[in-house]
Amino acid sequence: MEKQFYIWKISKNDAKKKLLTFLKAKTHASNRQIKNALEKGQCLVNNKIERFSSILLKEGSEIKLNRAFIDFVEQKKITSLKILYEDEFLLCIDKPSNFVSDDKNIHLFFSKKYTLLHRLDKDTTGVLLIAKTQKFKEKMICLFKEKKIIKTYLALVDGQIKEKTKKIENYLQKIKSFQGQSIYGSSSNGKYALTYLKVIEKYKDKTFVELNPITGRTHQLRAHMKQISHPILGDYLYAKSFYCKDQVSRLQLHSSQIEFTHPETNENIVIESELPEDFIL
Fold first, then answer.
1. What CA–CA distances, in Å, run from 219 to 153, 195, 261?
2. Active site residue 121
3. Does residue 278 fall inside a structural domain?
4. What is the pLDDT of residues 210-259, one digit of tens each?
5. What is the CA angle 275-121-69, rounded to 5?
6. At 83, is the secondary structure helix, strand, or coil?
7. Domain residues for 10?
8. Which of 97, 131, 149, 164 would you label with 30, given CA atoms 20 to 30 Å apart?
9. Which residue out of 94, 102, 103, 121 is catalytically annotated?
10. 116 φψ region: left (φ > 0), alpha (ψ -120 to 50), beta (else)
11. What is the CATH number for 144?
12. Which of 24, 39, 73 is the last residue before a domain boundary?
């Protein structure tokens, strides 16, 4: 395991240097490569994952960096988006990882009249709905509000979950931020959040689960899995360490299916996305 990492002990001379400055001098990698490596959880400070390049190092601290960190940070340029479903009102794409869900990015590939109906986190993959008109968007938003859109996610989470099924609920709100990153957690002043979990398969140190969010709060699935002490693998915003030692390149969360009654045609629509190759089963 130790051969997998570069390991350095912080000397008096390197104390108070920024992590970015230190790693750049040691590896000769670019700022972007180092920051991406940190974002992907490839660096540990005193055996805890460190995602932020601006922290000041302390004398005696131990720094570990995955020797293969370049393989984790080199991202292929996205030149096209796979269409899972399309009609005159609706477009559904198979969202890749490392793709920010916003209209600006959608307009790089499709008409500027199109607009997102919901969002997925940058590294979450799978089914993403896009409205072709504002009128249709308003109808779909009503379905979301009335909880008539059934969303199914697949995730790999840390450790073994004992129960076969589980109901997770709390009141979520933003509880803190760090270097521009918002973190959500349980709060009596938050908005009600409900998720149903079903175990698909258990492994030695991880569990493959199906997640059905009934509400649609920001970071709901990530916060709920953290709450039950089984964070999603690759979620370095909500977990500093994992029992599972698999090296994953991104958040192991996938939007696998969306089902709803089409507000224009009244057809029952089921849109599915296959698990991507970087899901480490």
1. 13, 12, 26
2. yes
3. no
4. 999 999 999 999 999 999 999 999 998 899 889 998 888 789 999 999 99
5. 75
6. strand
7. 2-73
8. 97
9. 121
10. beta
11. 3.30.2350.10
12. 73
Residue 189 shares a structural domain with residue 112: yes
How many domains does the structure of the chain reveal? 2
Burial-class residue 248 by CB neighbours within 10 Å (0-12, 13-18, 19+). Answer: buried
CA distance linking residue 262 with residue 120, whole number of Å:
21
Q: Do both 131 and 230 map to the same domain? A: yes
Question: Which pLDDT tens digit goes with each residue over 109-147?
Answer: 999 999 999 999 999 999 999 999 999 999 999 999 999
What is the crossing angle of helices 19-27 and 31-39, to 10°?
A: 120
Residues 190 and 264 in one domain: yes
The Cα 140–Cα 131 span in angstroms is 8
- Amino acid 1: pLDDT: 47
Please state, in angstroms and rounded to a whole number, the distance separating the CA atoms of residues 230 and 203: 13
